[in-house]
Amino acid sequence: MKVDFYRHALSEADASAVAAVLATPFLTTGKVCSSVERQLESYFTVPHALLVNSWTNGALAVLLAMDLQPGDEVIVPAMTFIASANVVHLAGGTPVFVDVDPRTLLMTPEHVEKAVTPRTRAVMPVHIYGQMCDMKGIRAALRRARPAGGEPVLIEDCAHCFEGTRDGYRPGRHSDVAIFSFYATKNVTCGEGGAAIFNSEDLYRKTLETRLHGMSAIAVDRFSGGRYNHWDMNRLGTKANLPDLLAALLPHQISTIDERLPERKRLADRYRAAFAGGPLRLVEQVDTAVSAEHLFVIGVGNGARDAAIARLNEAGVSVTVNYRSVPEMSFYKTRLAGSAESWPVSWQWGEETLTLPLFPGLSEAEQDHVISTVRNHVYPLIAADKA
Ligand SMILES: *Cc1c(COP(=O)(O)O)cnc(C)c1O
Question: What do you get for the CA distance between the two ends of the chain, in Å?
């Protein structure tokens, strides 16, 4: 049996929404984007939302809006996707890696407090796999640390967590800005895309410009009043705006996301029950958090992760690795003081982890095949004596 890693659930209705945009003369950032931005503001109860063409470009626009100077530091976890650190480099700053909690793989307030220096300009917690970091605690840790350079900007990497909550709050509640990804495999998707939601008025105003080359007016405004209006450029920006053509895929997904979460949770709980008491390392679930259940990851010890991937692939099961520790990447290795083992939890998890298929629409038969392959072919690898 072949089991895909992921299948999207876009429908005929979504195709019609795109066709409706195609029937207008205006394809890029316009009315559809504005209306999705209002939808996001109401879903997250925040004053401002901006759609962007990827998490990466959205984060870059935010960091450009902050005008990072060489030597300015941004604290990021070592266990995340490379994009979280790359954008800091692209914007001219220095990523400072911190390790993560061994049970949840999340950055904690304690990690942040220890890493803050007078050069810290921002902190970027990542809600990895769908569980939210303790944002309230991280905000409090920043207030306690009081770096000489002023309170750092708190940026949430919400690529894995759109619909999750922690202690009853959603992303965007305790941060200055929270950034989402609508990449092909994310819980809300338009192929490529993303959004940033803001509590900081100042950062929102500046990002509105850095999202589009630093231009002082977006396309619809340049032609408002039926004539051409001149614009200026106040700061350096990137090209991060989302076209209406892709934004058309979002309204329905956003309005139904909470109805789809129970299906993800049912599938994730089914994996958790099947593997309970077994030899795999599983991510501990925070009692007071509702996970967005973006990825179902397992840890395979005994140096057997890559052999496990081979066994699963032979059985027709597609898997991925989310992630090897970022400081393990050659680009970072040559630029960092410590070795990859300086972030031991991230490094070890990065050696052990692999991700199983999880998406609404995964059938019971498919999931049973994945479960029995893990039990029959991966468990013995963990028990085996190493030669
Ligand atoms: C997917 C992802 C990103 C990047 O998102 P893009 O929209 O592809 O730029 C950033 N951080 C994390 C944790 C991700 O999983």
Answer: 32
Q: H or E segment at 61? A: helix 55-65
Instruction: Show me where the domains of the chain are located.
Output: 12-250, 260-384
Report how far ligand 1's centroid is from the alpha carbon of 322 (Å): 11
- The answer to whether residue 239 is catalytic is no
Quote the tokens at residue 126. 């990542």
Q: Which CATH class is domain 12-250?
A: alpha beta
Write the single-letter amino acid at 71: G
Find the helix packing angle between 55-65 and 83-90, rounded to 10°.
40
Whose Cα sits closest to atom 6 in ligand 1? 55
CATH topology of domain 260-384: Aspartate Aminotransferase, domain 1 (3.90.1150)
Q: Which of 2, 31, 114, 186 is catalytic?
A: 186
**2 has pLDDT over 60:** yes
DSSP 375: I
Q: Are β-strands 296-299 and 281-282 bridged in parallel, bridged antiparallel, or unpaired?
A: antiparallel
- In angstroms, what is the span from residue 56 Cα to ligand 1's centroid? 7
> What does the pLDDT look like over 7-43, one tens digit per residue?
999 999 999 999 999 999 989 999 999 999 999 999 9
Residues with Cβ within 8 Å of 305's Cβ and at least 6 positions away in sequence, in order, are: 321, 351, 352, 353, 354
Q: Residue 198 and residue 207: Cα distance in Å, rounded? A: 10
Q: What local confidence, expressed as pLDDT, does residue 218 receive?
A: 65
What is the number of the ligand 1 atom nearest to the C-alpha of 80?
A: 13
> Does the pLDDT at position 223 exceed 70?
yes
